[in-house]
Every structure is written in structure tokens, then in C-alpha cells.
Amino acid sequence: MTENNFHDSSFLSQGDNTSQDFIDVSSSSSSSDDESSEDENNQSGDASKQLVLYDPAANGTLVPAPEPATPFQQHPRRQGFPISNQQSPRVLPSVGAFTVQCANCFKWRLIPTKEKYEEIREHILEQPFYCETAREWRPDISCDDPADISQDGSRLWAIDKPNIAQPPPGWQRLLRIRGEGSTKFADVYYVAPSGKRLRSMVEVQKYLLEHPEYVSNGVTMSQFSFQIPKPLQENYVRKRPARLLASCNGNERLEPDLVRPLAWAGPDESPDLQLGMPRLPPPCVPDPINRPAKKRAKKSPPKEMYSSDPRASIDSS
DNA sequence: GCCACCGGTGGC
DNA sequence: GCCACCGGTGGC
After folding, report:
1. Nearest Cα residue to A173 out of A110, A228, A91, A100
2. Å from A179 (CA) to C4 (C1')?
3. Cα A210 to chain center, whole Å?
4. Is the pLDDT of residue A21 over 70?
5. pLDDT band for position A269 (50/70/90)?
6. Residue A205, CA: closest nucleotide via C1'?
7. Who among residues 33-92 of A has its Cβ near strand C, under 7 Å?
8. Which of A88, A126, A193, A269 could make an S-S bridge to A170, C-beta 3.0–4.6 Å?
9. Spatial distance from the CA of A29 to the C1' of C11 (Å)
10. Strand, coil or helix: what is A14?
11. Predicted local distance difference test score (pLDDT) of residue A66
């Protein structure tokens, strides 16, 4: 029931680095490597290499990797997920493949490069993707051919947001998938031609103000979007414990049964609960003492500095 | 010292 | 619940 039947694009990632060759992200460990996977795109135009699908045979641990989101319409049957969680603690998944669903037959088609994928995604709503579209790189493909990939439990799928503008020429949009159990599924970063990494619209705007040359060359805020895909696997992302409520209802016991194991899988200690209260339920006042004082100074002012709606940032102007 | 990654909050 | 933002910091 979710938003599935609408074709858009998605990617999948997978944590198993054993995968292949080309992406080899880090094969060993360093999480930083995954970066390399994205690098490939970096190589400007080399369209020849691509596709990083993972090799199921190589598994050892099946850590699903997030892949580009696609529109999947088939109902989410993720029961098949072998739980990737517990084991391999920190293998960061990386995007393993980009796939887009045909608006006609609903089969998933792998997209050869990230750039091509971004190009398709940019106008997916106005220009739906069809198997025939893939003829650009697969001359004879049609809806009669079997799907390139399907949602089995071997990968982590995530649905991407449609119509995200392609990054400006020379810039790169990086999607970093976070580990399971994190508070967010992923982060988007833009890397300027200078190598500067920008992680929010605020930072982009500031950067452009400091480097007017980009603006003069046509770079605009509408070319940026920090929207992240949504994982199909429920509980991949840790849910936030009901805001303040928790402290207010300190006495409202948290029965273990009520708590989703997964959610608490993390080794994190949750000090609040313990510190918070011996036995008497304090009033609903956030105790400054126990609190790490993490308040963020709210300095950010007006939000309308840039006017661009990420969702519909297609300014075809 | 840097920075990629994670945590977590404010605001809707 | 989701999204945007950004502080903190472990690991290099």
C-alpha cells in the first residue's frame, strides 16, 4: 500500500562488498571506501563501466545493500529479509544498482550509470520510463523481456524521490546510506567542483554566495535537492521514541514487549531512562541536569532565502 | 587536524 | 512521522 504503484526509480544497495569488481567498495572495511563506489561516476563519462550488481553467490553475510530506489509496486514483501541486522555491525551498505520501473509492464530495468539514472529521475513524472527507453543502451529490450531484477530478499531496496534535478555540471550528488538502526536512512551531499562537500541547502546557498562564479555560470538552488530515498525495509531506520512524552510519562512503564527489539538493538544506552528516574516520576519538566544539553541554538532565520521546491524543482526555465 | 558518519532536535 | 539541519566525534 504504500506508494507503490507508481513508477519511479529506485536503487538498491547492498552491503556485501564482495560484490564485484567494480565497485568494490572498500572491500575491507573502511567505510570510506564506499565513496569509491560513487566515484565511478565521477569518472566522467565513462559509461562503460557500470552496473554494480551484486553477486548473490558471494554472500557470506547478507547484508542488504541499499540500492537505488525504484518504484516497486509489488507489494513489499520483505519477509524474506534475512535479517541483516545483528551481524555485521558496521558494514555500510552502498548503492549497488540503479533501477527504474517500466510504467507499462512494471518490470524493473537496470540503469547503466548513475548519471543516466539521474537523467531519467529528473523528469520521471512527466516522462515516464518504459522498457523502450532502455533501448538507448539495450537495443532490443522490450516489455516482453524478463525483468532485470526483482525484489527478492537479497537486497535492500529503497524508493527514490521523483524529479530531482540533476546536479550542475561538474558537481556530484552523493548518497550515503547509513547503517541499519540509524536515525536516518541516508544522507545526501553535493560535492562542488572544488571538492567542497555541502550537506544542506543552507550550506549550498552560502557556498554559492561566496562563489558567485558558479551562479554566473548558471548554477541555481533549484539544481539541488537533499531528499533521500525511503527504505522498503520497515525498521531499517530506528524510530524516534515518542518525543518528550517519554520523559513525561516516566512512570508509564515501557514494557519490553511493547518495545520493538529491533528498535533497541543498538548498544546505546539510553541514559535518559535510567537517569531520569529512580522511582518518582518527576514532573514533566525536562530536567536540564540530566540532559546532555544538546539544544541547538536556533539561529537559522528565515527560511525563504532560496525559493525552490525540491520536490518540484524542475524549473525548466 | 580533518572529515565522514552518526545522533538528535526543531518544525511542520 | 518526516524532513532539514548541523553538532559531535571516532577513526584516520
Report:
1. A228
2. 20
3. 29
4. no
5. very low
6. C5
7. none
8. A193
9. 12
10. strand
11. 33
A31 touches strand B (CB under 7 A): yes
The CATH classification number of A93-155 equals 3.30.40
pLDDT of A168 higher than 70: yes
Q: Is the Cβ atom of A295 within 7 Å of strand C at any atom? A: no
Query: A61-78: per-residue pLDDT in tens?
Result: 222 333 333 332 222 222
For the residues of A160-203, what is the DSSP string, one character each? PPS-PPPPPTT-EEEEEEPPTTSSSSEEEEEE-TTS-EE-SHHH
User: Which bases of chain B are under 7 A from a protein CB atom?
Assistant: 3-11
- Which nucleotides in chain C lie less than 7 Å from some protein C-beta? 1-8, 12
Hey, which residues does A68 pair with through a beta bridge?
A11
**In degrees to the nearest 10, what's the CA dihedral of A137, A142, A147, A148?**
-10
Distance of CA A71 to the CA centre of its chain: 14
Strand-by-strand arrangement of the A197-198 sheet:
A172-177, A186-191, A197-198
Kindly report the CATH number that applies to the domain delimited by A158-238. Answer: 3.30.890.10
Give residue limits of the domains in chain A. 93-155, 158-238
- The whole-number pLDDT of residue A13 equals 59
In chain A, positions 173-202 with C-beta closer than 7 Å to nucleic chain B are: 176, 178-179, 181-184, 187, 197
Residue A57 pLDDT exceeds 50: no
Q: Does residue A309 carry a pLDDT above 50?
A: no
Q: Residue A39 CB: number of other CB atoms within 10 A?
A: 14
